[in-house]
């Protein structure tokens, strides 16, 4: 895959980065270099390699997966402009 000047300009615009027309060739070249590195990563054989969470072996902390209401109903509703019977009250929009 190769990035042309038009694509580099579009990526810069999407990223909200102002790039002068004179700098677009250098930016496109950088994008192409990065894509080259990504293609090299695709060539690495990772069969049998387990994913790591850290460079040192450790187990992730786990907690019991149970559903609760968070016990913060009053705190959550304290900022509501209108709350009734423990719920947000909103204007009726459907007849």
From TrEMBL:
<keyword id="KW-0067">ATP-binding</keyword>
<dbReference type="InterPro" id="IPR036113">
    <property type="entry name" value="Asp/Glu-ADT_sf_sub_c"/>
</dbReference>
<dbReference type="InterPro" id="IPR003837">
    <property type="entry name" value="GatC"/>
</dbReference>
<dbReference type="GO" id="GO:0070681">
    <property type="term" value="P:glutaminyl-tRNAGln biosynthesis via transamidation"/>
</dbReference>
<dbReference type="GO" id="GO:0005524">
    <property type="term" value="F:ATP binding"/>
</dbReference>
<dbReference type="GO" id="GO:0006450">
    <property type="term" value="P:regulation of translational fidelity"/>
</dbReference>
<comment type="similarity">
    <text>Belongs to the GatC family.</text>
</comment>
<keyword id="KW-0547">Nucleotide-binding</keyword>
<keyword id="KW-0648">Protein biosynthesis</keyword>
<dbReference type="GO" id="GO:0006412">
    <property type="term" value="P:translation"/>
</dbReference>
<protein>
    <recommendedName>
        <fullName>Aspartyl/glutamyl-tRNA(Asn/Gln) amidotransferase subunit C</fullName>
        <ecNumber>6.3.5.-</ecNumber>
    </recommendedName>
</protein>
<comment type="function">
    <text>Allows the formation of correctly charged Asn-tRNA(Asn) or Gln-tRNA(Gln) through the transamidation of misacylated Asp-tRNA(Asn) or Glu-tRNA(Gln) in organisms which lack either or both of asparaginyl-tRNA or glutaminyl-tRNA synthetases. The reaction takes place in the presence of glutamine and ATP through an activated phospho-Asp-tRNA(Asn) or phospho-Glu-tRNA(Gln).</text>
</comment>
<keyword id="KW-0808">Transferase</keyword>
<dbReference type="Pfam" id="PF02686">
    <property type="entry name" value="GatC"/>
</dbReference>
<keyword id="KW-0436">Ligase</keyword>
<dbReference type="GO" id="GO:0050567">
    <property type="term" value="F:glutaminyl-tRNA synthase (glutamine-hydrolyzing) activity"/>
</dbReference>
<comment type="subunit">
    <text>Heterotrimer of A, B and C subunits.</text>
</comment>
<dbReference type="GO" id="GO:0016740">
    <property type="term" value="F:transferase activity"/>
</dbReference>
